[in-house]
Amino acid sequence: MHSSNLLLEEPMRIASVLEPSKPNFFPAMTKIVGTLGPKSRSVAVISACLKAGMSVARFDFSWGDPEFHQETIDNLRLAIKSTKKLCAVMLDTVGPELQVVNKTERSIPLKADSFVVLTPDQNKEASSNLLPINFSGLSKAVKTGDTIFIGQYLFTGSETTSVWLEVTEVHEEDVVCLIKNSATLSATLYTLHVSQIHIDLPTITDKDKEVISTWGVQNKIDFLSLSYTRHAEDIRHARNYLSTFSDLNQTQIFAKIENFEGLTHFDEILQEADGIIISRGQLGIDLPPEKVFLFQKAAVYKCNMAGKPAVVTRVVDSMTDNLRPTRAEATDVANAVLDGSDAILLGAETLRGLYPVQTISTVGKICAEVRAAIKVKASVIICFTSTGRAARLLAKYRPTMPVISVVIPRLKTNQLRWTFTGAFEARQSLVVRGLFPLLADPRHPAESTNSANESVLKVALDHGKASGFIKSHDRIVVCQKVGDASVVKIIELED
C-alpha cells in the first residue's frame, strides 16, 4: 500500500449479493428523532419504532418522573438488543419553561372574551377564571397588551386545546388576561409562552442539574437537548457542568432555539453548540408564521456550513391523532430535507400520539422519496475514524451517497483501569444526515501500515453485503490514514 492521495485498487470479488427483497440499510439519509412516552414505551412499540427508522430516542423531562423514564430506557435497551438496531439517547431539559399547575387534573374550560387571572400562588386551585403558574416573576416581565399563549405539551395552534391571552392588567404578582379564543385545557401539563419577553430564570435549572447528575449519568446520555437556549454562555455553562461527570464528558450539547433571544444570538450559539434543534412550535409564537420558514432555511444553511447537525421539529402534527399527514405536512417534511436538515424530531406525534410507529415510518418514507428524486447513481464512502471527526467532515459536504463511519475503538486508562472508547462516537453519528456508524473490533487500529486495515475493510464490506447496501459492480470510496498520510482509495467490486 502506497502513501499517495488517491489509490485505485484492483477489483475485489464479492461472493454473493442479497436478494432485492431485503430491506434497504439506508431507508433515508435524513434521521428521525422519536420522543418516547406513554404511547411509545413498551418493548414491542419501541422495537417497531427502531425498525421503522428511529435512530435517536428523546426523553422529555418536562413531564414524567425519572423512574418512569428509567423504565422506558430499560425497555429501549431490550428493544435494541432484540432488533440489533443502534439507537442514541437524548435527554431534553425543562429549562425556564413556564407551566400551568393543575393539581386537580380536571378539565378547565376557557371562554372567549372573558377574563382569567394568572397567579404564582400554586396553593390555589385551577379554574376557568384562575390559573396558577410555576413562576413568580411574570407580573414584572409583562405589560398591558402583551401576548401569552398556553398550549398542551407542544404548541399545536388548535382552537380547542390551546389558548391565546392578552394582558389587560397587572395586579401585584397576578396578571389579568383577556381570553382571545374558547378552549379547554384537559390534561395535567400545559406550558405557557410569553411572546418576545425575557424570562428571568436560568437556562439550565437546579431541577435539570439534578436529572442530569442522576438519570443522565446513570444512562450515559449521548445528547443533551438544552431547552430555551438564549446565549452562547448557556452552552458553555452546560458544558462545564457536564465536564464534572466522567461518564458525560463525551455528551454532545444541542441548542434548542425556541424564542426571540435564541434567534438574536443564533450565530454565537452555533459556534458553541454541537448541534441545533429548531423548535418551530414556540418560534411560531415569537415570529409570524411566514418568518419561521425563512429562519429555518437560514439556520439550516448555517449549520450545514459549520458542519453541525440541524434538527427540525413539528412536521406532522396531524399524525398525533390521524394515520396520515396532510399534503402540506408531507411537503413540509420534503422541504426540510431539501433545505439540508440532518434530522426530523417527532414530539407529541410519538410521545402521546395514537400512531407512533406509523408516524416514524411515514416520515421516513417521505425522506427516502426526496432522496430518490435527487440522488445520482448510488455508491458508498467508507471512512475509518477513531473520533468520528473525519466522517462528520465528509458528511458536512452532503455527498449524494451514504457515508459509512467505521469507528475504531481506542484503548485508554485512568491509572486504575483500561477501557475502550468508540461507543459514544458511533452513537453520536446517528443524528448526522447521511452518516451511518459501525463499531469495529478494537484489534483493528484506525491508523496502521500492516494488514489490519485490509482486514477491517473486509469486515465493513462483508457487513455492507449482508445488509444489502453494497452490491456487485458498486464503486466504493475508502478514506483512511496510513502512517502519516491520508489516503483515498477507490474499490470497484466485481460479481
Task: Characterise the protein shown here.
Keywords: ATP-binding, Glycolysis, Kinase, Magnesium, Metal-binding, Nucleotide-binding, Pyruvate, Transferase. Residues 368-483 form the Pyruvate kinase C-terminal domain. This protein has 495 residues and is of the alpha/beta class. The chain contains 15 helices and 25 strands. It has helices at 43-52, 66-83, 138-141, 206-218, 232-242, 260-264, 266-272, 280-286, 289-306, 327-339, 348-351, 356-374, 389-396, 423-427, 452-467; strands at residues 6-8, 31-35, 54-60, 88-92, 98-101, 108-110, 115-119, 130-132, 147-152, 163-171, 174-179, 183-185, 189-194, 223-226, 252-257, 275-278, 310-313, 343-346, 380-385, 403-407, 410-413, 418-421, 435-439, 475-482, 485-492. The longest helix has 19 residues, at 356-374.
* Fourth-tier CATH superfamily name of the largest domain: Phosphoenolpyruvate-binding domains
Helix-strand makeup class:
alpha/beta
The number of domains is 3
- What is the average per-residue confidence, as pLDDT, rounded to a whole number? 81
Low-confidence stretches: 1-25, 446-451
End-to-end C-alpha gap? 24 Å
For the record, the CATH class of the largest domain is Alpha Beta
Q: Over the alpha carbons, how many angstroms does the gyration radius reach?
A: 24 Å
Percent of residues in beta strands? 25-35%
Which SSEs are present, and which pair or pack?
Blueprint: E1 6-8, E2 31-35, H1 43-52, E3 54-60, H2 66-83, E4 88-92, E5 98-101, E6 108-110, E7 115-119, E8 130-132, H3 138-141, E9 147-152, E10 163-171, E11 174-179, E12 183-185, E13 189-194, H4 206-218, E14 223-226, H5 232-242, E15 252-257, H6 260-264, H7 266-272, E16 275-278, H8 280-286, H9 289-306, E17 310-313, H10 327-339, E18 343-346, H11 348-351, H12 356-374, E19 380-385, H13 389-396, E20 403-407, E21 410-413, E22 418-421, H14 423-427, E23 435-439, H15 452-467, E24 475-482, E25 485-492
Parallel strand pairs: 1-25, 2-3, 2-18, 3-4, 4-14, 7-8, 14-15, 15-16, 16-17, 17-18, 19-20, 19-24, 20-23
Antiparallel strand pairs: 5-13, 6-12, 7-11, 9-10, 9-13, 10-11, 21-22, 24-25
Helix pairs in contact: 1-2, 1-12, 5-7, 7-9, 8-9, 10-12
